[in-house]
Write a structure and sequence with these properties.
Growth Hormone, Chain: A; 3% strand; single chain; 579 residues; transmembrane transporter activity; POT_fam; mainly alpha; 17 helices
């Protein structure tokens, strides 16, 4: 690649383009597990606050706001989709302008303000008389003002929580420098992502088991105030680490950088790339992208290499970023293209994951949910998923990683791509288990009661399997997209996991709509009717399982073809980020 041996004119181009940016301070003076633990505690408390609102929102909409079941379900779907789409906004602002720390601080403050507004709105305008909305006592009709303030508050919560999630994960990974020559922090990023997902589930566990109970018996305002208090403590813990975090500079808007690569390549479509040494790269330890390491040239998508070819026009005319790009800039665009097929293959898994909040609950509601005289709510079965995540995370970190590491020679144990594949397989087994459970439930159905004599606890295997699959799939996703994303778009990489969940929700809704359109023709009730005893939800589960098999085959093909990013360490020492 053209670097130190390029003509004088190219050095001038480099000087005009960007100076060599220094790292903020020596990395080893900051970061490590102490500030990382503050971020993990922040994640647990923020998730506790968020799910204190989200887990029972459909009941709040029907019991307090007065919506019908269909409208309430639609409102929750839109709100949930907004949460995960906001992750892309937060990632963009973090990578482009604000940096990780400021992005987390601003969006978490929005989360706190949203919860304050929700608590006040519920207390002053919605939950009247006090204690209403418990399924027995009805609330007074809500005013237009109260309803508008309610929607404003919950969408502030969606913006605040969704906006900071991927950036918080990336900030946590920044606390560990795996390029440390003494290897003191080797493998710590993988451990952090596992604990990060465990912290999310710990927060969810307490909100699902404690706040759900109090809100269900009419203490809605109390539940919201508790959520608000948890978010305030989370924000204070976040600020406590301000002088101990490692900070990474924002690299500027990546959209023009990627666009410049495609435009420059199109302008030079007649140019031939015969030798890698023809390609332009700046001198120095860092790339022209602020705060980013250089990315080594790869052989894929060679047509984009034309953007980095030095022509006579580049030597004679003024600098033009839309005609000449660096190798690192070209490789940044290539990395995004390489990650997309892997990301698309994770969407079907997210369809599996979303069934816990929809069809699993409907299935459980049509089963025997009593232990003696005690009623176990169908929605609370997700506790088994959360416990499964926590136990499997512990087993994976303490048993599987050391064992597989010794056998394979890889200290990380399984690679991220291998873990995601295993997660897909376990998710497939969860759908089969759910389908088999539904077959047995239908055999024991009680038509006149629209239910079944089969115990709801026969659902435990499918919840446990989904929880186990999350440890491999979602933790693997977080680590994979963070490691494979170039330095300038790390938060974008972390946001791809949440974007996958968002699209999984939409694809699941589309599948249900398509299946019902086909199976409910004529006098038929379809696979998923109002009375599940008249339908065949088992066939829908098996359909998802079949789609997962095809997705798994495609995923294996894409994973085998995937080429990992290689970055330059210490100026000339290449480092391959394993996937």
């Amino acid at each position: 690649m053209a670097s130190n041996n390029v003509p004088l004119e190219i050095s001038i181009i480099h000087d005009e383009r960007a100076p060599i940016h220094q790292q903020p301070k020596p990395k080893r003076k900051r970061g490590g597990w102490a500030p990382a633990f503050l971020l993990l505690a922040n994640q647990a408390l923020a998730t506790f606050a968020f799910f204190g609102v989200g887990v029972n929102m459909v009941l709040f909409l029907t019991r307090v706001i007065g919506q019908g079941n269909a409208d309430a379900a639609n409102s929750v779907s839109k709100w949930t989709g907004t949460v995960y789409l906001c992750s892309l906004l937060g990632a963009f602002l973090s990578d482009s302008y604000w940096g990780r720390y400021l992005t987390c601080a601003i969006f978490q403050f929005i989360l706190v303000m949203g919860l304050v507004l929700l608590s006040l709105t519920s207390w002053l305008f919605l939950v009247i008389p006090s204690g209403c909305g418990d399924g027995v006592n009805h609330c007074f009709p809500t005013s237009t003002k109260g309803t508008m303030m309610f929607y404003l508050s919950i969408y502030m919560v969606a913006l605040g929580y969704g906006g900071h999630q991927p950036t918080l994960a990336t900030l946590g990974s920044d606390q560990f420098d795996e390029s440390d020559p003494k290897h003191k922090e080797k493998g710590t990023k993988g451990a952090f992502f596992a604990y990060f997902y465990a912290a999310l589930n710990i927060g969810s566990l307490f909100s699902n088991s404690i706040l759900v109970y109090y809100e269900d018996i009419g203490h809605w305002t109390t539940g919201f105030w508790v959520s608000m208090s948890a978010s305030v403590v989370a924000l204070l813990l976040f600020f406590c680490g301000s002088f101990h975090y490692r900070y990474v500079q924002a690299s500027g808007n990546p959209l023009p950088r990627v666009g410049q690569v495609f435009v420059a390549a199109c302008r030079k479509w007649k140019v031939r790339v015969d030798d890698e040494k023809q390609l332009y790269e700046v001198d120095g330890l860092e790339s022209a992208i602020k705060g980013s390491r250089k990315i080594l040239h790869s052989e894929e998508f060679k047509c984009l290499d034309k953007a980095a070819v030095i022509t006579e026009n580049d030597l004679m005319g003024p600098q033009n970023d839309w005609r000449l790009c660096t190798v690192t800039q070209v490789e940044e665009a290539k990395c995004v293209i390489r990650m997309l097929p892997i990301w698309l293959c994770t969407i079907i898994y997210s369809v599996i994951f979303t069934q816990m909040a929809s069809l699993f609950v409907e299935q459980g509601a049509a089963m025997n949910s009593y232990i003696g005289k005690f009623h176990f709510p169908a929605a609370s079965m997700s506790i088994f998923d959360i416990v499964s995540v926590l136990i499997c995370t512990l087993i994976y970190r303490t048993v599987l990683v050391p064992l597989v590491g010794r056998l394979s020679g890889n200290p990380k144990g399984l690679t991220e791509l291998q873990r995601m594949g295993i997660g897909l397989i376990i998710g497939l087994l969860a759908m089969i288990a759910a389908g088999v459970t539904e077959v047995e439930r239908l055999k024991r159905s009680i038509p006149e009661e629209h239910t079944s004599s089969m115990s709801i606890f026969w659902q435990v295997p499918q919840y446990v399997l989904v929880g186990a699959s999350e440890v491999f799939m979602y933790v693997g996703q977080l680590e994979f997209f963070n490691s494979q994303a170039p330095d300038g778009i790390k938060s974008f990489g972390s946001s791809l996991c949440m974007a996958s969940i968002s699209l999984g929700n939409y694809v699941s809704s589309l599948l249900v709509h398509m299946v019902m359109s086909i199976t409910a023709r004529g006098d038929k009730v379809g696979w998923i009717p109002e009375d599940l005893n008249d339908g065949h939800m088992d066939r829908f589960y098996f359909l998802i399982a079949i789609l997962t098999v095809f997705d798994l085959v495609l995923y294996v093909y894409c994973a085998r073809k995937y080429k990992c990013i290689s970055v330059e360490e210490n100026g000339n020492e290449p480092k391959k980020e394993e996937g």
